[in-house]
Design goal:
single chain; alpha+beta; Jelly Rolls; Arc Repressor Mutant, subunit A; 2 domains; 10 strands
Length: about 240
């Protein structure tokens, strides 16, 4: 993992606030407890108590709710620069699970570390609150997608959102991005069957909009995909620092 000054989280928070040397030093301390997790094994279980939060430094994670019948609904995917379990630090138990999709690296952040950081650097606390609010806005969009968008628009919106999130941390462009998600991940996130996901991706490819193959999303007609999804990125709030 790199130092906090060059971390994905720093790049992400810099979209909201121009970080000072003091704030960068506090972020460096938050990155001290560095851990690795293997894919496919939950790092946090739904209902687990006394949890730390994590700053994802490398790899992808999915957060999900497990249903009584054993099925799951993926709530979101986390990419480098995202916090994992920030809400669970303040709640008594974690209300959902986190599973690494690939082997990951993350910094463990204890509740005491986080509260100390907030007390020392209120602007950094505000920036982290911005990141948490942005995550909540994405969950709202996912709810709208599942409830109101047809399958093609839902998929298009999801792929565009991922691209915007990855661009913020230097991992994606309007040409495309690497993506380790399977059709089963997409199905559990978008409320579709894996067969339906396959059909939708084929249709988007055949209409010349986007190809998702061999772990890579390739945008062929970015603006056309935006039109199909009616994608307005304002909710991602990535236009530049609000605080200097």
């Amino acid at each position: 993992m790199t130092s906090a000054e060059h971390s994905a989280l720093t790049r992400k928070l810099s979209a909201f606030v121009a970080l000072s040397e003091v704030e960068l030093a506090v972020l460096e301390r938050l990155h001290q407890r560095r851990r690795s997790f293997v894919s496919g094994r939950d790092m946090v279980h739904q209902g687990q108590s006394a949890q730390a939060a994590y700053i994802l430094s490398a790899g992808w994670v999915c957060s999900y709710k497990l249903q009584a019948d054993g099925t799951r609904q993926i709530v979101d995917f986390q990419v480098p620069g995202d916090f994992l379990g920030l809400r669970s630090v303040l709640l008594r138990t974690s209300d959902h699970s986190f599973e690494p999709i690939v082997d990951i690296e993350a910094a463990e952040v204890l509740k005491s570390d986080l509260l100390d950081a907030f007390a020392q650097t209120p602007r950094l606390a505000t920036a982290i609150l911005w990141a948490a609010s942005r995550d909540e806005a994405m969950v709202v969009e996912h709810l709208v997608g599942i409830g109101r968008r047809d399958a093609d628009a839902r998929m298009a919106h999801f792929l565009l959102e991922l691209g915007s999130r990855l661009a913020l941390v230097g991992m994606g462009t309007k040409d495309g991005y690497d993506c380790p998600l399977t059709q089963y991940h997409l199905a559990d996130a978008l409320g579709l069957s894996a067969i339906h996901v396959n059909r939708v991706l084929r249709q988007l490819r055949e209409t010349g909009l986007v190809t998702f193959r061999d772990g890579h999303v390739k945008f062929h007609d970015y603006d056309g995909l935006v039109d199909l999804a009616e994608f307005d990125s304002a909710y991602l709030d990535q236009s530049g620092p609000l605080l200097k």
